[in-house]
């Protein structure tokens, strides 16, 4: 009987040791798998970057995220947000295109929606002209329409004031605008974090979302003589065609700003939104954005 008991004990000990060793090995395997699954932090060319989960607001990536930089035409996200935030905004209200808008484009050598003097273009159409071809003439027309004052200069100043008031209401301490389109006098700046927050706010507006995900559009506008013409606009944001799930938002460029992009994409119900500022080329800003989106979806 004693021999039997000893044998049973040996078997029990052996089994326990085997189970324990197995558990350790399994635990190590799970730990290794978890460690391997953690995506490596991407390296980007852009001098500044920020990415967040748009649903939760959780920060997913930062690189000099709070350093103030020139923003180029990504400024126009705020231009659109101010327009769409106006009480009872009428997107079908018509705006007559003034010579001042086209003169401005010529004098600044600025990106254009090719608006024609005398044409009557709706507010909704101007927003497409603003966000797709990045029309600075469309930005001017919207600032003139939605600013307050008896002169064009006063109305533009008023509109830029609304842009800054909106930034303040969003508690953005590193953002300031001195223009309606990003072609400022040296005092137009934001940060990757702030711009992402502006875009996140704008993307909550269904009209804005619909516009910025549009690859191209043809809009029928009324001519000075009462006839009509079609304006065709293509989106400067190539991510819409080259990144699965891309839904916006806005490109930007300039002598100081270099190449900028505010981007967003949705996959499996998760939306990732972010910004890269001061990248070295159009190709690099796109590559930066794709890297950051990939990383954001894995986080």
Automatic annotation (TrEMBL):
Annotated Gene3D superfamilies: DD-peptidase/beta-lactamase superfamily
GO BP, sorted A to Z: cell wall organization; peptidoglycan biosynthetic process; proteolysis; regulation of cell shape
UniProt keyword annotations, A-Z: Carboxypeptidase, Cell shape, Cell wall biogenesis/degradation, Hydrolase, Peptidoglycan synthesis, Protease, Signal
Active site: 73 (acyl-ester intermediate), 76 (proton acceptor), 134
Residues holding substrate: 250
Record bears the keyword Metal-binding: no
Signal peptide: 1-36
Pfam families: Peptidase_S11
Record-annotated Peptidase S11 D-alanyl-D-alanine carboxypeptidase A N-terminal domain positions: 40-279
Gene Ontology molecular function, alphabetical: serine-type D-Ala-D-Ala carboxypeptidase activity
Family of this protein: Belongs to the peptidase S11 family.
Protein name as it appears in the record: D-alanyl-D-alanine carboxypeptidase
The species this protein was found in: Streptomyces globisporus
């Amino acid at each position: 009987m004693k021999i039997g008991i000893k044998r049973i004990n040996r078997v029990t000990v052996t089994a326990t040791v085997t189970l324990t060793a197995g558990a350790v090995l399994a635990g190590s395997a799970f730990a290794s798998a978890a460690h391997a699954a953690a995506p490596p932090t991407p390296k980007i060319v852009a001098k500044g970057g920020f990415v967040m989960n748009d649903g939760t607001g959780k920060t997913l990536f930062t690189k000099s995220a709070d350093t103030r930089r020139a923003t180029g035409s990504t400024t126009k996200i705020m231009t659109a947000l101010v327009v769409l935030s106006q009480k009872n905004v009428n997107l079908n209200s018509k705006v007559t295109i003034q010579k001042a808008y086209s003169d401005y484009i010529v004098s600044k050598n600025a990106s254009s929606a090719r608006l024609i003097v005398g044409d009557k273009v709706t507010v909704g159409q101007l927003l497409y002209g603003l966000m797709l071809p990045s029309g600075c003439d469309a930005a001017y027309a919207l600032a003139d329409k939605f600013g307050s004052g008896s002169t064009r200069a006063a109305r533009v100043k008023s509109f830029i004031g609304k842009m800054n008031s909106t930034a303040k209401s969003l508690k953005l301490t590193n953002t300031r605008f001195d223009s309606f389109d990003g072609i400022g006098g040296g005092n137009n700046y934001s940060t990757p974090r702030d711009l992402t927050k502006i875009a996140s706010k704008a993307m909550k507006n269904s009209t804005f979302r619909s516009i910025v995900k549009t690859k191209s559009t043809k809009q029928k506008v009324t001519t000075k003589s009462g006839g009509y013409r079609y304006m065709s606009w293509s989106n400067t944001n190539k991510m819409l065609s080259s990144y699965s799930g891309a839904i916006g938002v806005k490109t930007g460029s300039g002598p100081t700003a270099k190449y900028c992009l505010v981007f967003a994409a949705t996959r499996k119900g998760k939306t990732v939104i972010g910004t890269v500022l001061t990248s070295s080329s159009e190709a690099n800003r796109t590559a930066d954005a794709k890297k950051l989106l990939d990383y954001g979806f894995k986080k």
